[in-house]
Write a structure and sequence with these properties.
This protein is low in regular secondary structure and about 45 residues long. The chain has one helix at about 5. The chain has 1 helix and no strands. It is elongated. The mean pLDDT is about 80.
Length: about 45
Amino acid sequence: MEPHIDALSESTYRPVWFDYDQRPEPLPSLDGDVTCQLLIVGGGFTG
């Protein structure tokens, strides 16, 4: 096996922020119309 494959053999495929047992409670859904100056659709590293 290649060295980089060996180094990752025990890793898990999940976001790094899931490494903690405590997770925030989900926020309630928006109810009604909302206005803003900037809206980012998405939530990953690139938005």
